[in-house]
């Protein structure tokens, strides 16, 4: 347990009689990328909300770096190093790319100068330095996604939740994003959890994959193990999701 | 040409007021109807200041109104920050009513005359057949100065945080922007703009009464809507557009229709909103939030 | 005259009516408790708080003085006269309920706000209950048979008459020949004033150089000034139909733009509060009033009353409304005495017969006209920041009370 940067045990969340998340455990180690997959309605979004503090579990607990954070708000969790990205990036459209990163880096680094140099480093890292003075709203969807990711990293998180990074991106953009994600994972001390429909992204990027169905964990393992797991195959074939072919 | 000066002067006054309203709307989605009363307090500060030097009177107005705005946020708006917009609106009405009642209690409802600037700079200059009031120049100069300062501020650390919070408060908070601090900053700046508006308005009117700020605030509020709720450049644009509409309708409407001037102004506003429902510049308020 | 509707006050009152109700649920009745059969009760329904407070509180003080004087002289046929109050909070919608509250407490006559809109509600309540209502000074002829009803009266004078009077005065005494009409079209009184002026000005043969309108809430009348400045010649007089605060704002802007025409206005611009700091040396403003409070009224009783008022309240009245309120109480009591009855219809009949009745100022009504059209006006002229009375004047030819 102690080597997990982010973990949860026995999470349960019910909505009006429906158990959306039913006794789910999870764990992410520093330097690891955990993939979270499952058919539509499997409980992925609810689970992410429970972990990030947008929702509270009925029972179960969430730990960050060994500390119980179950009762903390999303903002408090964020301050302690559990940062998330959002579907569709949600970068600030009226702020420049650089300012987007500066806002995120400021709380940790304190001074504007240090936040700016951190931002510049990351812009270089993400190969978007040329766009640093461009307002967020002028960027393409793919670049917005990259900036959203860099912005999250600028906060120097110890654990990062990435919500559907590849949704709506074309192949080139999606590859670029995957490369950036694995570079971040290799070079920074971060535990990452990715929620994604695109199996190609999940299978190429993740060290481990956890599969949810009907709110329960039906399999955890390496991408190869998951690909061969009969329960996973049944879950995906039984649903109408078209992404199971990978 | 003479009318152009009138447009610039009137538009600047609306712009000063509209920016104050747009700032707090931006971060809090609060339509602050007490903004007019912030201006009123600024006006009474000038009345009470009486014969102290002009710069000291202006400075005290700015400090007191700025402080009042921050204190109002602290006492009245913070407890309802997460309530629905209607609750915040009613709260702002309550603050507005309270401040007006207080003014009636302290100064009576009749109003007090006030001279803000010495007579030497309240006169008229004649330049090439144009009559330019010193006050028009002051109004435009104050607006431009504050606008440039505001733009510079928006590039600073607190400015960037303020803009981020105005665009998406939830995400900004998750990124560690401190809600209290950023909202406090917005109110302080809003207070400074209210004070600046009150100085120009008091100089222009020569009289301060409990409803001193009400009409200007209503027009500025319309400017904010026309410009695009929550967009600061929009507020400025909307203010000058409103100045243009109101001056031209006063100047061009035939006498019989002139008494319907305000109705005419609102008609044009409605037409603009029909063509561009989100305002001239689309504000963030219209966008989906998390 | 009237305390005019203020657009801004309206907005505020409309939007805060709810808050008001919530915040101040208890009806705030003040004054002595009525003692029924042994006393004759007069109810005062007025804006004792809110935007009309500056007009109504001084008027209430004067009404109290009248009641004291009457009781000292033996009351009304042996009965004490008592004054009770109900605050309308300067809210038009509170007028009717305030009137009803006073009637329920046994008021035998009402004093109401000096404005048709703000005072009309209480007056209508009185009319419905068969009780006389006297407005402290509304300038609307609708206070009477043609409007609220035969039991409603006003101590004020009409807008049309006031406007016509300034036309005659300016033409005859100041030899003015060209006029500009500047109308703040926020209220009917203002419109009546400008209409009365124009009617008489044309009859006298004066030139109308132009006309324009503005609103009381306008922060600036620059476009109007620009238009006026484009005239080949500055007009001798400006018929200025407005009231403070907006009127004070507009007037200041005219002066600072260098327009120094004689300004003809109305009692809504009486007072020194609106210019003493901004334009301490202001001159060339003239207006007709029923009484001057500036120490030089031609009538000794008025001068003495103003001195007493200052002694009692420690403040200089800013307009004639205290004088009118004092006269209104006297009118009510006089009507009850003369008719020997405290029934509304009987009192109204007695008041209809008032002709130059001396009640501090002369008061005249007829069966059809419940607004005074006979009372000689004092022309107040502002000179170097001081109001001075330029004699008494009566209208030579009255314009129609109502617009066609």
Low-confidence stretches of chain C: 1-35
| Helix content bin of chain C | 25-40%
N-to-C SSE series of chain C? HEEHEHEHEEHEHEHEHEEHHHEEEE
The fourth-level CATH homologous superfamily of the largest domain in chain C is Response regulator
Q: Give me the CATH architecture of the largest domain in chain C, please.
A: 3-Layer(aba) Sandwich
Question: For the report, how would you describe the main beta sheet of chain C?
Answer: 7 strands, mixed
Alpha-carbon Rg of chain A, integer? 18 Å
- Strand count of chain C: 15
How many individual domains of chain C? 2
Strand content of chain C: 15-25%
Most strands sheet of chain A: 6 strands, mixed
Please state the CA-atom Rg of chain C, rounded to the nearest Å.
21 Å
In spatial order, strands of the major sheet of chain A run 6-7-8-3-9-10
Mean pLDDT of chain C equals 89
Greatest interface (CB-CB under 8 A), with counts per chain:
B-C, 53 and 53 residues
Helix content percent band of chain A: 25-40%
Name of the top-level CATH class of the largest domain in chain C: Alpha Beta
For the largest sheet of chain C, list the strands in their spatial order. Answer: 8-7-9-10-11-14-15
Mean pLDDT of chain A: 89
Helix count of chain C, per DSSP?
11
Structure notes:
The complex is a heterotrimer of chains A (246), B (290) and C (404). In chain A, the strands form 2 sheets. A 6-stranded mixed sheet of chain A has the order 6-7-8-3-9-10, sandwiched between helices. In chain A, strands 2-1-4-5 form a 4-stranded antiparallel sheet, with helices on one face. The two termini of chain A are 32 Å apart. By secondary structure, chain A is of the alpha/beta class. In chain A, strand 9 (208-213) and strand 10 (216-221) form a beta hairpin. Chain A is built from 9 helices and 10 strands. Chain B is mainly alpha-helical. In chain B, a hairpin with a 2-residue loop joins strand 2 (124-127) and strand 3 (130-133). Chain B has one domain (2-212). Chain B is globular and about 60 Å long. In chain B, helix 2 (35-49) runs parallel beside helix 4 and helix 9 (214-227) packs across helix 10. Chain B contains 12 helices and 4 strands. Chain B has a two-stranded antiparallel ribbon with strand order 1-4. Chain B has a two-stranded antiparallel sheet with strand order 2-3. Chain C has 404 residues and is an alpha/beta fold. Chain C has 2 domains: 7-157 and 302-363, 3-Layer(aba) Sandwich (Rossmann fold), CATH 3.40.50.2300; 159-289 and 377-393, Response regulator (Rossmann fold). Chain C has helices at residues 7-23, 53-72, 95-104, 116-128, 159-173, 188-204, 222-229, 246-256, 300-313, 321-339, 344-352, and strands at 29-31, 39-46, 80-87, 109-112, 132-135, 152-154, 178-184, 207-214, 237-241, 262-264, 285-289, 357-359, 361-363, 377-383, 386-393. Chain C has a 7-stranded mixed sheet with strand order 8-7-9-10-11-14-15, covered by helices on one side. In chain C, helix 3 runs parallel beside helix 4 (116-128). Chain A binds chain B through residues 74-75, 78-79, 83-84, 86, 90, 92-95, 99-100, 102-104, 106-108, 112, 115, 151, 155, and chain B through 156-157, 160-161, 163-164, 167-168, 171-177, 284, 290.
């Amino acid at each position: 347990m102690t080597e997990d940067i982010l973990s949860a045990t026995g999470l349960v969340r019910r909505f009006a009689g429906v158990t959306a998340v039913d006794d789910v455990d999870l764990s992410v180690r520093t330097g690891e990328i955990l993939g979270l997959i499952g058919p539509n309605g499997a409980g992925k979004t609810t689970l992410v909300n429970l972990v990030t503090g947008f929702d509270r579990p009925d029972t179960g607990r969430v730990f960050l770096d060994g500390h119980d954070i179950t009762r903390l708000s999303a903002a408090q969790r964020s301050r302690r190093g559990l940062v998330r990205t959002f579907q569709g990036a949600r970068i600030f459209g009226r702020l420049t790319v650089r300012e987007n990163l500066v806002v995120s880096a400021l709380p940790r680094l304190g001074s504007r100068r240090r936040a700016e140099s951190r931002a510049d480093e990351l812009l270089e890292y993400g190969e978007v330095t040329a766009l640093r003075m461009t307002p967020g709203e002028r960027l393409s969807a793919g670049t917005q996604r990259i900036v959203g990711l860099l912005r999250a990293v600028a906060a120097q998180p110890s654990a990062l939740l990435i919500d559907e990074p590849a949704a709506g991106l074309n192949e080139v953009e999606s590859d670029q994003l995957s490369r950036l994600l694995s570079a971040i994972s290799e070079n920074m001390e971060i535990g990452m959890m990715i929620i994604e429909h695109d199996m190609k992204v999940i299978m190429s990027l993740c060290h481990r994959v956890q599969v949810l169905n009907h709110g329960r964990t039906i399999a955890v393992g390496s991408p190869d193990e998951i690909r061969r797991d009969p329960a996973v195959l049944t879950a995906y074939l039984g649903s109408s999701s078209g992404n199971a072919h990978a | 040409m003479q009318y152009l000066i009138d447009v610039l002067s009137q538009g600047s006054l609306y712009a000063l007021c509209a920016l104050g309203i747009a700032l707090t709307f931006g971060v809090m989605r609060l339509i602050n109807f007490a903004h007019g009363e912030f201006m009123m307090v600024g006006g009474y500060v000038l009345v009470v200041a009486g014969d102290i030097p002009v710069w000291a009177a202006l400075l005290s107005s700015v400090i007191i109104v700025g402080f009042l705005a921050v204190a109002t946020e602290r006492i009245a708006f913070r407890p309802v920050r997460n309530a629905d917009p209607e609750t915040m609106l009613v709260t702002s009405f309550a603050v507005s009513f309270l401040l007006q009642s207080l003014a009636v209690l302290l100064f009576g409802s009749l109003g007090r005359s006030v001279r803000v600037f010495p007579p030497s700079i309240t006169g008229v200059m004649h330049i090439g057949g144009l009559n330019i009031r010193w006050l028009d120049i002051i109004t435009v100069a104050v607006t431009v100065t504050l606008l440039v300062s505001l733009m510079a501020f928006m590039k600073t650390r607190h400015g960037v945080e303020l803009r981020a919070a105005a665009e998406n408060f939830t995400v900004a908070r998750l990124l560690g922007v401190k809600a209290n601090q950023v909202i406090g900053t917005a109110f302080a700046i809003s207070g400074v703009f209210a004070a600046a508006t009150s100085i120009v308005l008091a100089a222009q009117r020569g009289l301060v009464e409990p409803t001193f700020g009400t009409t200007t605030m209503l027009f500025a509020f319309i400017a904010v809507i026309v410009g695009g709720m929550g967009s600061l450049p929009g507020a400025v644009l909307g203010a000058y557009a409103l100045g243009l509409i109101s001056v031209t309708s006063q100047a061009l409407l035939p006498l019989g229709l002139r008494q319907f001037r305000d109705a005419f102004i609102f008609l044009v506003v409605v037409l603009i909103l029909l063509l561009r429902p989100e305002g001239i510049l689309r504000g963030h308020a219209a966008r989906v939030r998390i | 005259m009237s305390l005019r509707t203020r657009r801004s006050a309206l907005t505020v009152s409309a939007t805060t009516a709810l808050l008001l109700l919530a915040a101040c649920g208890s009806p705030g009745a003040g004054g002595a408790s009525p003692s029924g059969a042994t006393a004759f009760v007069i109810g005062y329904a007025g804006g004792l708080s809110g935007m009309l407070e500056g007009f109504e509180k001084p008027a209430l003080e004067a009404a109290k003085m009248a009641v004291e004087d009457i009781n000292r002289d033996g009351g009304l046929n042996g009965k004490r006269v008592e004054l009770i109050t109900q605050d309308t909070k300067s809210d038009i919608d509170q007028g009717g309920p305030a009137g009803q509250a006073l009637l329920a407490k046994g008021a035998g006559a009402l004093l109401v706000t000096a404005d048709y809109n703000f005072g009309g509600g209480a007056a209508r309540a009185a009319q419905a209950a068969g009780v006389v209502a006297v407005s402290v000074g509304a300038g609307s002829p609708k206070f009477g048979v043609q409007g609220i009803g035969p039991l409603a009266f006003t101590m004020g004078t009409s807008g049309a008459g006031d406007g016509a009077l300034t036309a005659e005065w300016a033409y005859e005494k100041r030899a003015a020949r060209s006029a500009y009409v500047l109308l703040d079209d926020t209220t009917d009184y203002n419109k009546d004033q400008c209409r009365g002026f124009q009617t008489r000005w044309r009859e006298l043969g004066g030139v109308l150089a132009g006309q324009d309108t503005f609103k009381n809430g306008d922060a600036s009348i620059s476009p109007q000034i620009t238009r006026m400045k484009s005239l080949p010649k500055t007009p001798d007089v400006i018929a200025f139909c407005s009231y403070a605060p907006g009127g004070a704002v507009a007037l200041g802007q005219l002066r600072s733009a260098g327009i120094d025409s004689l300004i003809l206005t109305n009692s809504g611009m009486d007072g020194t509060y609106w210019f003493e700091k901004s334009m301490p040396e202001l001159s060339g403003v003239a207006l007709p009033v029923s009484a001057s409070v500036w120490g030089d009224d031609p009538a000794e009783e008025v001068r003495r009353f103003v001195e007493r008022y200052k002694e009692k309240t420690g403040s200089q009245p800013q307009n004639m409304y205290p004088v009118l309120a004092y006269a209104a109480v006297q009118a009510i009591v006089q009507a009850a005495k003369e008719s020997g009855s405290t029934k509304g219809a009987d009192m109204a009949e007695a008041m209809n017969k008032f002709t130059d009745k001396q009640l501090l100022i002369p008061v005249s009504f007829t069966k059809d006209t419940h607004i005074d059209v006979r009372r000689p006006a004092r022309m107040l002229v502002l000179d170097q920041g001081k109001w001075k009375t330029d004699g008494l004047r009566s209208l030579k030819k009255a314009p129609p009370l109502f617009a066609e």
